[in-house]
Design goal:
Number of domains of chain B: 3
CATH class of the largest domain in chain A: Mainly Alpha
Shape of chain B: flat
Helix content of chain A: 55-70%
CATH architecture of the largest domain in chain A: Orthogonal Bundle
Number of helices of chain A: 9
Strand content of chain A: under 5%
Radius of gyration of chain A: 18 Å
Structural class of chain B: alpha/beta
Strand content of chain B: 5-15%
Distance between the termini of chain A: 49 Å
CATH topology of the largest domain in chain A: Rna Polymerase Sigma Factor, Chain: A
Number of domains of chain A: 2
CATH superfamily of the largest domain in chain A: RNA polymerase sigma factor, region 2, helix turn helix motif
Oligomer: heterodimer
Order of helices and strands of chain A: HHHHHHHHH
Distance between the termini of chain B: 107 Å
Number of helices of chain B: 11
Number of strands of chain A: 0
Structural class of chain A: mainly alpha
Helix content of chain B: 55-70%
């Protein structure tokens, strides 16, 4: 299999097929990254597109100093941060009313998201990048601008905390949904408060 | 969990499960985990957390490429912007705009300087009919062989013209061929030995202008281009055209035969340098370097270790990539030299001495004198201004420093005299 870096170089050389291959490889993972962190499905789709559009626009400037995967996730994290700031501004000014979400989660997923919501922001991000995006410790460190050892110790702490949070009975309560909301995680359908 | 009973830290157990532990520590962890029930419990807890997290599955998005991306890809816009969404403008964008403005102002100033400066320079030189026989004019390279300027005519006399390498259709075709060649690694070698062909030809012609025009027509016919072309000459001697021509190697003989018809051949030589072994060697080294790059990339992606190790691998990867780029450029240059032969042609005009040289007319001489007078005056004014600007501040400073001591000294002298 051709490496991502080789594909990126080919794309810079003008190969459209190379970009299509990169798109095929990373569309799903990037969509998952946004979908698990945002409330609305459509925004996840839009932001996934934004990542690839940014890659096309910046292809001339791209320098093969980092892995393409890290590069793509780096763009995605920037976009995500901007999206969260926008959501915060909108919610503060009351521009956007609560919109129905398109997620249809089972109880177990809600229970697990509730547990994730109780984690510290950075630690939750580490756990999610490790478990869902399957990033290595060094990649997480690069994305979050932290030392690798810090990532390892905080990831361990987060997983231990998560273990504790997952111990209680699977009880979806309003307070649980509140916790999910305050933690910035998407809320499930039918749970509008 | 302490080191006395457990040779590995709990975090290391987690790192071991994640495949992020170094090989030596991973061995210790594996041995310990096989015999420590407490650590096995920790492993079970960590695995349970992962399993719970992985219950959150998502539907796959549509696999087709969205029209927005397909459109952007088609346009393949080179303009790059920072990866921020459309809403709001980031600081970087704002500063980017500011820098853009600075650049625009700078460019405008440069254009104004050129617009004012060039006519002034021209005014100084154009009135002199035979004053500067070797003046260099750089011309923008024409985009097609048709755009190569035609035979110079009288206006070319006493001027030297240098043409850059034109991006002709043939060149573009060659470049495209080279890209294909680089994709297919050993392309040119399969066709036989690689020889860099060169030729030199000196001609003398009676019809200089016609020869020059014919030379360009010959090049056009054989899909060649002018690497460099100089025309020079002095009063009292014939003009000389020296040109470096690049023609496809397979067209060299035909081109030479036609060029020889432009005048009397004074001298001719042809040479060839076999670079097959160099090319093969370069290809092999390039292949090895690419393999090394691939291995290092895999290593960086799949293996884990200390940060210093990762940085060392990245440095090595940078070095290897630099070597690859250098070798790739060398390979392309060599392929270019092989594909296109170089002909150094020199065409000299057979000069017929004229018995009567017509002197410049009175009006021209008066005009020249007026321009000379104006130039001398302007140079004098500029010289004075420059002198004042360069030494004025120093003179003022010393005058200020020495004024009072001089005044006191002067008064004392006057007092003594009185």
């Amino acid at each position: 299999m051709i490496s991502d870096e080789a594909l990126m170089q080919e794309f810079r050389g003008g190969s459209q097929a190379a970009f299509e291959e990169l798109f095929t490889r990373y569309r799903g993972p990037l969509y998952g990254l946004f979908r698990r962190r945002l409330e609305r499905d459509q925004r996840a789709e839009d932001l996934t597109q934004e990542v690839f559009l940014a890659v096309i626009r910046a292809s001339v400037r791209y320098e093969p100093r980092a892995l393409v995967r890290t590069y793509l996730y780096g763009i995605a994290m920037n976009l995500l941060a901007a999206e969260r700031r926008k959501q915060f501004r909108d919610s503060a000014s009351g521009e956007i009313a609560a919109e129905p979400t398109t997620q249809d989660d089972s109880d177990s997923v809600l229970w697990m998201r509730q547990a994730l919501g109780k984690l510290d922001d950075a630690e939750r991000e580490m756990v999610m990048l490790r478990e869902y995006e399957q990033l290595s410790y060094s990649e997480i460190a690069e994305l979050l601008k932290l030392p690798v050892n810090t990532v390892r110790s905080r990831l361990f702490r987060a997983r231990m905390a998560l273990k504790e949070h997952l111990k209680p009975e699977r009880n979806i309560s309003a307070s649980a949904v509140e916790v999910v909301e305050t933690a910035g995680l998407p809320r499930a359908e039918g749970e509008a408060i | 969990m302490n080191r006395m009973t457990h040779p590995i830290e709990p975090e290391e157990v987690m790192a071991y499960l994640d495949g992020e532990l170094k090989a030596d520590r991973a061995k210790v962890a594996a041995v310990h985990l096989s015999e420590c029930a407490e650590c096995q419990g920790l492993v079970a807890e960590l695995k349970s957390v992962s399993q719970n997290l992985n219950t959150w599955n998502l539907d796959s998005p549509e696999s087709a490429m969205p029209p927005a991306i397909a459109g952007a890809l088609a346009e393949n816009r080179a303009a790059s912007r920072y990866a921020f969404p459309a809403h709001g403008r980031s600081l970087r964008e704002v500063f980017g705009q500011r820098w853009l403005t600075v650049w625009r102002v700078g460019a405008l100033a440069a254009i104004l300087l050129l617009a004012v400066g060039i006519p002034m320079l021209n005014r100084r030189s154009t009135k002199y009919e035979y004053s500067k026989p070797q003046e260099t004019v750089l011309l923008v390279a024409p985009k097609t062989p048709e755009a190569i300027p035609g035979g110079g005519g009288g206006g070319d006399r006493d001027k030297l013209e240098t043409f850059g390498k034109p991006q002709s259709a043939a060149t573009a075709k060659f470049k495209a061929g080279q890209q294909n060649e680089s994709a297919g690694e050993h392309g040119p070698i399969a066709n036989g030995p690689m020889t860099i062909r060169t030729a030199q030809l000196n001609l003398v012609t009676k019809e200089f202008d016609k020869a020059r025009a014919s030379l360009e027509a010959i090049l056009k016919r054989h899909r060649g281009y002018v690497g460099e072309l100089n025309v020079g000459g002095n009063t009292g001697s014939g003009r000389t055209l020296t040109a470096t021509l690049r023609v496809p190697a397979d067209q060299l003989d035909a081109t030479m035969a036609e060029v020889k018809t432009l005048g009397r051949v004074e001298s001719e030589s042809q040479g060839g340098q076999d670079v097959t072994s160099q090319y093969v060697d370069l290809q092999a080294r390039l292949g090895n370097a690419r393999n090394t790059e691939e291995r290092l990339t895999d290593l960086l992606r799949n293996r884990t270790g200390k940060l210093s190790d990762v940085l060392a691998v990245e440095q090595e990867l940078d070095r290897v990539r630099g070597e690859i780029e250098q070798m790739e450029a060398e390979r392309k240059n060599m392929a270019n030299q092989v594909s296109y032969a170089t002909v150094t042609a020199s065409i000299t005009e057979e000069y017929k001495a004229q018995m009567q040289v017509v002197p410049p007319s009175t009006s021209t001489r008066v005009g020249n004198a007026a321009v000379e007078g104006y130039r001398t005056m302007a140079d004098g004014v500029v010289g004075v201004v420059l002198f004042l600007l360069s030494t004025g501040p120093s003179l003022l400073l010393w005058a200020a420093i020495l004024f009072f001591p001089a005044r006191v000294a002067w008064k004392k002298l006057r007092g003594l005299a009185a």
